[in-house]
Fold this sequence. Notes:
Layout: E1 7-12, H1 15-25, E2 29-33, E3 37-42, E4 45-51, E5 61-64, E6 67-70, E7 74-77, H2 80-92, E8 97-104, E9 112-118, E10 124-130
Parallel strand pairs: 1-4, 7-10
Antiparallel strand pairs: 2-3, 3-4, 5-6, 8-9, 9-10
Amino acid sequence: MILRPFHLAFPITNIDKTIKWYTLILGCTIGRQDKKWIDFNFFGHQISGHLIDENDSKNHTNHVDGHNVPARHFGIILTLDEWKSLSKKLTSNNIDFIIKPNIRFKGQKGEQSTFFIEDPNGNILEFKAFKNDNMIFKY
């Protein structure tokens, strides 16, 4: 099976702040754009920010391996080297982490490096890298 790029749409409250954050902080490039939405190349996948009047700031969490993980989030599985590089970049840019870089399920199937950050619209993003990519769907 050939992995196809995914598409995800998410709410935003300010297009200009969203563009700056996704391009300058994460290094995404801009695709198509309108007054009410914008597409980004998110590590080879298409994400679209859609302008809304108000952002629902309620974000429920689930307890996962010692952390309260926001239930509503999206992200990308990077290689470990890519994850380390992005983690260092965000740390050096003083980005506030919702969950700081850590290793989840250490020594178990599915061991992964992970961290969570928030974009300027209240959307939560998770960046992770598995110790072994063969364990992505194992439990």
